[in-house]
Design goal:
- By secondary structure, this protein is of the alpha/beta class.
- It has 6 domains: 141 residues, Rossmann fold (3-Layer(aba) Sandwich), CATH 3.40.50; 113 residues, Luciferase, domain 3 (Roll); 107 residues, GMP Synthetase, Chain A, domain 3, CATH 3.30.300.30; 111 residues, ACP-like (Non-ribosomal Peptide Synthetase Peptidyl Carrier Protein, Chain A, Orthogonal Bundle), CATH 1.10.1200; 130 residues, Aspartate Aminotransferase, domain 1; 235 residues, Aspartate Aminotransferase, domain 2 (3-Layer(aba) Sandwich).
- It is 38% helix and 17% strand.
- The chain is built from 41 helices and 39 strands.
- The protein has a 7-stranded mixed β-sheet, sandwiched between helices. A 4-stranded mixed β-sheet has the order 2-1-10-9, sandwiched between helices.
- Strand 30, helix 32 and strand 31 form a beta-alpha-beta unit.
- Keywords: Fatty acid metabolism, Ligase, Lipid metabolism, Membrane, Transmembrane, Transmembrane helix.
- GO terms for molecular function: adenylyltransferase activity; ligase activity; pyridoxal phosphate binding.
- It holds the Pfam family AMP-dom_DIP2-like.
- InterPro entries: ACP-like_sf, Aminotransferase_I/II_large, AMP-bd_C, AMP-bd_C_sf, AMP-binding_CS, AMP-dep_synth/lig_dom, ANL_N_sf, FAAL/FAAC.
- One of its GO terms (biological process) is fatty acid biosynthetic process.
Length: 1156
């Protein structure tokens, strides 16, 4: 696979991640590698040099002091943070195998960790000192018998002198990635360094990143998407990644979007539920002022992807700059390292990402693929991307192992260089899953267990062959949950429980159906409650429905195997023989057991150090918050009520409660507390300990009035973005009548402006490239064909001194003489006392030069467009401008308040269609085009635009900033070039800073137009007049040009020579049409920046044009050609440009001399 275009010639080694880290440590030592943020203010980061120093020190300690050897399995039990990143690469650097897992919660058993330890035969477990202390406690230590624990955040655990680079090969195991489904018998996927690198390459091809890549991830690093996407892939790319804890996101989803905006993130994503959570839980005031326009890739995977979620997210956040085309659904799993299919980012001109296709629902249920028979039968599926380079995907009959014909649904089988080596120490299971052969002996393939089909190049996933339960991106094996249910109640019939996922209300729900033994007069509520508690406690997934059914009524095969899909259909069709049931959202008499609650309270309080306070007011406020989330599940509560086990709230619901408590009481809970607190009493104690002072007063205000339970006190609201909160209080301080006026918080610190933060983020991104800042370079002389920078002479292609008149002796003398006669400034508006004889002289010369009645000059070109457009049209009018129009045109249109619409570049036919549809709706319509477009060097077919403007009775304005003096035989502009009557154009605009070697702008046209502007245009009336020196310089420049028209011919010759040589060299010059503006399009901002930097080392000065000034795919170098450039300078420049560009692209270097 060709990766050069993603690395601009700085391709890392591809053997193992130790050498990759060392490569970036040398190439980008001071650039940021990873940072960790709490999503608010706190942030810590590591550069590549700092990361390598930490990794080498820890790896040496592991080798020399701990005796860890190549191939040893090392458990990584880290909370979110940079310690995990350091330890992962330190384990690699020690030659060992990393086994990421999440540390057990303080008040829960570590059964899953124990299972992983036993399966992996891990000798060491690394984590932070606080977690190690927790793991050493009596409740958890027995689960880790035989495992050495090491707190790696201690500086004492660093000794780089011991480090020896292991003899790693690409096929060495790097990670055991344990699948998230099973607690009883977890399976560790064996991933080599080769797998990790191959999957990183596949992600590159799927995402096709084309900006300065900045990633962000809140996904857990023990999960495949968080580990590979959040840590491994960014290291392979050598690009910065911002990490945040899952808890920070889940508690307040707006933090994800705030990180994207703050750091100009281009790549970030998560499972479908994360996008839905943003839609459901983010308030508008939380994201006011954010900018999501940098977000190029919003990947989505790990669970079923819903078109409704993608659409809702786009609709909700498009006003912040998020684009629908940023959504990138993908498909993958731990067995394939991560990604299998995704993208591509560019689906072609006729396809927009993501791919949404409607199929016939009943046909899909029958495992066939057909177009919808009618709208009622249509079922819309989201395409999960295309097959990536080096992969093969087949749709196979899971029973016969025959390849399925097109239009059929079968099991998805995968061949890919990123497919793992199998399950650790499970040869038989590995052979079945990782080495499957088709009936005609093709293979080996990975059997994914997922059902799907290929349609028009896209993979669609339609279901699961294996009965995996996937909720919020985490897998659960149903048999584990079924075993828990059997143990939870003695009325459940062994071997007769079905646990499965059911889709409802746009999310997956856990449903349990269990047969009961024949017993009468049972209190079924107690048994339903016991089942709910047990499943929630052991799997951290509260059931959405529990059905206890009659004996022998659960569907089974003839061999006695539970038929979970049949159970699902029985639930949907109301065919269960129900004895008792509990369904979330329905009235229930279930109440928590006092004894169970007290036992859990004592156990949890003892470990967390939180005891219930005696203050009943705080308790009442907390119970009110809980009831708003739990609904009917809350029932009757006490301080001992466990909101996890008794009420069955899942992690997102608990975090929703925590978030609302923070709003009421102020402050923020520490993350470890959120993970440990479960009872009402513990929550109250945590409020008093960790949130703002005055908890009782805030609770009283919250409870005083039902309206206040929506958002309550002045103090609270002053701590958020609400300003005028409650303005009517009684004498005793209680709120009697809330009157709210919602506004945004004041901003008086520029450093906190979104625009400034975005600027600083962009500057940080530029620093990451290792190239010097190309902007605001100091030039020490008159810039013509050459310039002087820091005492060195460069060939200059960064100046629009097109005709070499800036610095011409006659021009300089004229400017000097004007200063002597009129001074350095006219010191007033021309309307008052700033009018000088030479102002009128210049304006008459311009009108004559252009070929119209009159002209008016202003002090700046940008201001000329803003003032004129902003003044001539208003809210009742329409402005249609070329899509590539200069910023000054767009700003003028915005200033005017008129309706503004761009038309496709140079497409007069599209303009004609728009005018046919729109012209009759508006008083005035202004069409704006340019003579020569300053980014692309092409020009409009002005005669066609004149024809259209006459037919539709519009005003036509032509901006001649880059065509005045450069176009036409004698430099009289685009009208001379086409041989048209200049008076057919209503408004001619031009600048004097280019061919006229001065400064300022002009408007030329009819006497009426100029008179209107002279007396009423704010940018002229209320502005000082042009300084005498600049007026005189412009007049003298026109004198020289009129006397020496050969300058225009030399310019034309040089421009055509430069363009022809570039095209001969294979450089992309776009639509440049022989004007003095010639772009060399690199298609990548990083390539453009590096190409400019390399040319500067060859004493050639040319500026890069980067995103967002142009689209990323249109990033370029822009060459300004002058009449004074020599043929030798031009040939040398094109030759070096070709050489360096090819080298950056990985193309064998050639030169013009070699190509003839």
């Amino acid at each position: 696979m060709d990766l050069q275009k993603y690395f601009s010639g700085d391709l890392p080694p591809r053997d193992h991640f130790v050498s990759i880290l060392r490569h970036w440590e040398q190439a980008r030592s001071d650039s940021m590698a990873f940072s960790f943020t709490d999503g608010e203010e706190s942030e810590e980061s590591l550069s590549y040099a700092e990361l390598w120093d930490e990794v080498r020190g820890l790896a040496g300690y592991l080798q020399g002091r701990c005796g860890i050897r190549p191939g040893d399995r090392v458990l990584l039990l880290y909370p979110p943070g940079l310690d995990f990143v350091v330890s992962l690469f330190a384990v690699f650097a020690a030659g060992a195998i990393a086994v990421p897992a999440f540390p057990p919660r303080r008040n829960r058993k570590a059964s899953r960790i124990r299972s992983i330890v036993l399966d992996a035969d891990a000798r060491w477990a690394l984590s932070t000192s606080s977690v190690i202390e927790q793991l050493s406690g009596p409740d958890l230590h027995e689960d880790l018998v035989g495992v050495q624990l090491l707190g790696t955040d201690s500086p004492d655990h660093r000794d780089g002198s011991y480090w020896r680079c292991p003899r790693l090969r690409s096929d060495a195991l790097g990670v055991l990635q344990y699948t998230s489904g099973s607690t009883g018998s977890p399976k560790g996927v064996m991933l080599t360094h080769e797998n990790l690198i191959a999957n990183s390459e596949l992600i590159l091809h799927a995402f096709q990143p084309d900006q300065f890549i900045v990633g962000a991830s809140w996904l857990p690093t023990y999960h495949d998407m968080g580990l590979i996407g959040g840590v491994v892939m960014p290291m392979f790319m050598g690009r910065p990644n911002v990490l945040m804890s899952p808890m920070a996101f889940l508690q307040r989803p707006a933090r994800w979007l705030q990180v994207v905006s703050k750091y100009n993130v281009t790549v970030s994503g998560g499972p479908n539920f994360a996008y839905q959570l943003c839609v459901d839980k983010i308030d508008d005031d939380e994201v006011a002022g954010l900018d999501l326009s940098s977000w190029e890739i919003a990947f989505n995977g790990a669970e079923p992807i819903r078109a409704s979620t993608l659409d809702a997210f786009t609709q909700r956040f498009s006003k912040l700059g998020f684009r629908a085309t940023s959504h990138l659904p993908c498909y993958g799993m731990a067995e394939t390292t991560l990604i299998v299919t995704g993208g591509p980012k560019d689906n072609g001109a006729d396809m927009k990402r993501p791919v949404l296709t409607a199929f016939d629902g009943p046909s899909l249920d029958n495992k066939t693929v057909r177009a919808p028979v009618d709208p009622d039968s249509a079922r819309e599926l989201v395409g999960c991307g295309r097959v990536l380079p080096g992969e093969r995907i087949e749709i196979v009959d899971p029973d016969t192992r025959q390849l399925m014909p097109t239009g059929s649904i079968g099991e998805i089988w995968v061949q890919s260089p990123s497919v793992g080596r199998g399950y650790w120490q499970r040869r038989e299971e590995s052979n079945k899953t990782f080495a499957a052969m088709t009936s005609d002996k093709q293979g080996p393939f990975l059997r994914t267990g997922d059902l799907g089909f290929l349609h028009e190049g896209q993979l669609f996933v339609s279901g699961r062959l294996k009965d995996m339960i996937i909720v919020r991106g985490v897998n659960r094996y149903p048999q584990d949950i079924e075993e828990t249910v059997e143990r939870a109640s003695d009325v459940v019939q062994a071997g007769s429980v079905a646990a499965f996922a059911m889709t409802d209300s746009d999310r997956e729900q856990l449903v349990i159906v269990a047969e009961t033994i024949r017993r009468r007069d049972l209190d079924w509520d107690d048994h339903l409650q016991s089942i709910r508690r047990a499943v929630t406690a052991e799997h951290d997934l509260p059931p959405d429905a529990v059905y206890l059914v009659r004996n022998s009524s659960v569907p089974k095969t003839s061999s006695g195997k539970i038929q979970r899909h049949a159970c699902l259909h029985a639930v949907r069709d109301n065919e269960l023989k129900i004895v008792a049931q509990w369904i979330r959202g329905e009235e229930s008499s279930l109440q928590p057991s006092a004894l169970q609650g007290e036992t859990m309270m004592k156990a949890a309080a003892g470990s967390s150090g939180l005891n219930a306070p005696a203050d009943p007011v705080i308790i009442d406020a907390i119970e009110t918050h809980v009831r708003r989330v739990a609904g009917e599940r809350a029932g009757q509560m006490s301080t001992d009520t466990n909101i996890v086990l008794d009420l069955g709230l899942d992690s997102l619901e608990r975090l929703e409660i925590a978030r609302s408590l923070e709003r009421t009481f102020g402050g923020r809970f520490p993350e470890q507390v959120l993970d440990e607190v479960e009872t009402i009493g513990q929550t109250a104690a945590a409020v008093e300990r960790y949130l703002s002072a005055g908890a009782r007063a805030r609770a009283e205000a919250f409870l005083a009035d039902p309206n206040q339970q929506l958002g309550a006190t002045d103090d609270q609201i002053n701590g958020t973005n609400l300003q005028d909160a409650i303005s009517s209080h009684s004498i005793d301080g209680n709120v009697t009548r809330p009157i709210r006026s919602v506004t945004v918080a004041p901003e008086d610190d520029v450093t906190q402006f979104t625009e400034y933060r975005r600027l600083k983020a962009t500057m940080r991104q530029m620093q990451l490239t290792g190239c010097p800042n190309p902007y605001f370079t100091v030039h020490d002389n008159i810039v013509g064909d050459t310039t002087m920078i820091d005492g060195e002479t460069y060939i200059s292609f960064a100046s629009y001194n097109y005709l070499g008149l800036s610095g011409h002796p006659e021009v300089s003398t004229a400017a000097s003489d004007a200063i002597a006669q009129y001074g350095t400034s006219v010191s007033a508006s021309r309307l008052v006392s700033g009018e000088k004889p030479i102002h009128g002289q210049l304006e008459r010369r311009i009108a004559e030069w252009v070929g119209v009645d009159a002209a008016i000059t202003m002090v700046g070109g940008h201001a000329t467009n803003e003032t004129t457009i902003g003044h001539l049209v208003g809210p009742e009018d329409l402005i249609l401008h070329d899509a590539l129009s200069h910023n000054s045109i767009v700003q003028g249109a915005l200033l005017s308040g008129a309706k503004r619409r761009p038309f496709p570049h140079n497409d007069y036919e599209a303009l004609d269609r728009m005018l046919t549809a729109l012209r009759h709706q508006y008083r005035r319509t202004l069409v704006v085009i340019e003579g020569v477009y300053s980014m692309d060097g092409d020009f409009a077919d002005v005669p066609k635009f004149i024809e259209i403007k006459k037919r539709h009775r519009c005003m036509l304005m032509v901006d001649e900033a880059h065509s005045f003096g450069t176009m036409g035989k004698t430099g009289h502009g685009i009208a001379e070039h086409f041989g048209i009557n200049p008076k057919d154009v209503d408004i001619w605009m031009g600048t004097l800073s280019k061919s006229a070697s001065s400064c300022g702008g002009y408007i030329a046209g009819s006497h009426a137009l100029v008179e209107l502007l002279r007396y009423t245009a704010p940018g002229f009336v209320f502005s000082v007049g042009m300084p005498p020196s600049q007026v005189a310089a412009a007049i003298a420049s026109l004198d020289v040009l009129e006397r020496e028209p050969e300058r225009v011919e030399r310019l034309r010759h040089n421009s055509q020579l430069f363009l022809s040589l570039c095209r001969k060299a294979g450089l992309d010059t776009g639509d440049s049409g022989g004007t003095p503006v010639v772009p060399v399009i690199t298609g990548n901002s990083l390539v453009a920046l590096r190409l400019s930097n390399r040319l500067k080392k060859d004493a050639i000065n040319v500026q890069p044009i980067l995103y967002p000034a142009v689209d990323e795919s249109a990033a370029r170098l822009r060459f300004f050609i002058t009449s004074e450039h020599s043929e030798e300078q031009i040939r040398f420049t094109v030759d070096r440009t070709q050489f360096h560009y090819n080298e950056l692209q990985g193309i064998p270097a050639t030169s013009l001399a070699e190509t003839g």
